[in-house]
Amino acid sequence: MKNYIYLLLLLFINTLLYSQDKSISSYALIKDVETNNKLYSGLVNVSVPLYQINLGNELTLASSLTYESNGFRPHIEADIVGLNWNANLFGKITRETNRPLTRKYSLYYKQVNGNEQDCFKPSSFTFTKKMLLENPTSTSDEYFTWMTDKYYFDFLGYKGYFVIDHNGKAIVFCENANLTVGINNLGCQPLFGEITFSEITLKDDKGNTFIFGGSSNELEINYHQLNVDYSEYATPSVYN
Fold first, then answer.
1. Is 240 within a domain?
2. Is residue 195 part of a domain?
3. pTM of the predicted model, to two decimals?
4. Residue 233: which residues within 8 A CB-CB, separation 6 or more?
5. Are 78 and 107 contacting, i.e. CB atoms less than 8 angstroms apart?
6. Can you name the residues that pair with 153 across neighbouring β-strands?
7. pLDDT at residue 172 in the model
8. How far apart are the two ends of the chain, measured CA to CA in Å?
9. What total number of domains does the chain contain?
10. Could you report the per-residue pLDDT of 185-202, keeping only the tens digit for each?
């Protein structure tokens, strides 16, 4: 009996729980930014306009219903507008996680204690980029990755993506505007207890400011998949 209890405790300690997965519309946003020309993908360009509102200051709020053919992919579920159809009504930002989730710490983020994981604050070390490239193993004795997360956005005619370097600076790609990105209220999320909500602010070259996040009302909550993984590297943790 004691052996079974020890086994259950061991499995619990080495469980990595993901709170939610991307929604279907998030996958459509990533695909549309990466391959925005239907001529290169060989797909029929089907787009049904829904509305167009002039907001002033050279801004237009417009939305359309688009079709994204993904072939036969059983794990892709239907969105609220139907299978392979996508409607971006007001604009959104989605995050593509590139770093291995089985690794406890990232070189780009501050190391925290066992109950707080994936702190988004930049690390306080003073190693230069040259030192990191030439001898990365001497800068940290923890697990780390060189891959940064990628954030895709599509709103009010602005479409592109940005990444955050290890100094906390955003590098933005947008074809039709010069955008700057600011991230506020960053912090480590506790395993148990109330979480905090960060806020992404984008500014264009016309003086307009766009704010995403900040509370649960501005977030898309999706639970179409629940992944449980076991890792020898990580203690139980929750990622948001």
1. no
2. yes
3. 0.58
4. 102, 103, 104, 143
5. no
6. 93, 160
7. 92
8. 36
9. 1
10. 766 666 666 777 778 889
